[in-house]
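tool_call predict_complex ligand=magnesium ion
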Amino acid sequence: MNSLVIHYQEIALKGKNRPWFIGRLVRNLRTAVSDLDVKAVRSLMGRIEIVLGPTATREDVGDRVRRVFGIANFSYAGRTALDIDALTAAILQDLGDRTCSSFRVSAKRADKRFHLTSPQVEREVGGRIQEARGWKVDLGNPELVVHVELLSDEAFYCFGKERGAGGLPTGTAGRVACLLSGGIDSPVAAHRMMKRGCAVTFVHFHSYPILSRASQEKARELVTLLTGWQQRSRLFLVAFGEIQQQVVLAVPGPMRVIVYRRLMMRIAERIGLARGAQALVTGDVVGQVASQTLENLAVVENVVTLPVFRPLIGMDKDEITTEAIRLGSYPISIIPDQDCCTLFTPRNPLTKARLAQIEAGEAALPIEELVDRAVAEAVVEDFEFPASAKVGPPEPPRISAC
Ligand code: ATP
Ligand code: MG
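tool_result ok
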């Protein structure tokens, strides 16, 4: 068995754009395994085959495939000629000395011209395995399912399938810019957008040198982790401490968090637009903290024209935490740091901000100048996974009409 066979589900439904979605998935897979001994990644009649070279391990390749969006399931598979004798012989050989109490064969024909129907193939191959091994056939609840797929010129077989990451291939939905703090929520929000096919650019605000470099280190580590799911990322590190000092001088205490957030939005929008982003993403949750009341969320997003997406908006913290643990971001997020939003923030923030009140509060600030400078001085860092990956230029997104 030296192939991985990958099935996509949702992208199969995308009508006329299907070849484009599949092409993108193949390209993403090629990048994901580009530093491993892989002979080919090819699209074959409704599935994708990865052909392993002699030194590639299934585990290494599987580990990469697990982190590629757009995959319903995948399996380690063997390939033979389109011939029942050859197919059964290969299955028996690969079953080795495996034992099992019951089994069944599940067959699918990608090319209906094959002279046997799927049930006939199941009976024929199943009968021969039963004869050779003496195993009981159980169609309802077998211990082992031998999957057989018949194409035009070749056949695949495998013993069990693993669930893929689901979603849509990264890059098929366009680009978004995510405001990434060092906390638990925003990496999960970014990951959810990636799963829906978005390429994510990251923007982190820090208050170095007023506070330590810890939050920047965390942002880097989080982006490194998340890049495993989209293969290439850009992180903008924006110095926010001086801006906060100016806000402190000009804006009454209770309004400051909202004013900080509106400045972050403006800066992130400017950076996002320059990268071709079509939306901003945050890890906001209704009512989580004072800045996340419905009133305040509305006043914060009012300052930008790009849509603001908040994929976690209706989730509880423990639900987000469970997702962060699964993603692997949780241990990074809980490393202690000093978040810039706690800097110069009084204990009594407004919970029901009104737009006119905040705009009046901002009137004394040289907003354009602050935003221009923050964008111009942002430090840009690029991340790639695997480190040696050759990733082509991004293509424009396409979505089917329905
Ligand atoms: P997280 O929400 O990621 O756990 P947090 O709880 O510290 O971090 P909140 O105060 O809940 O952050 O902020 C809400 C959202 O605002 C964050 O999810 C993030 O999208 C954005 N945000 C807050 N602080 C920053 C920052 N320093 N840099 C970039 N984005 C930030
Ligand atoms: Mg939060």
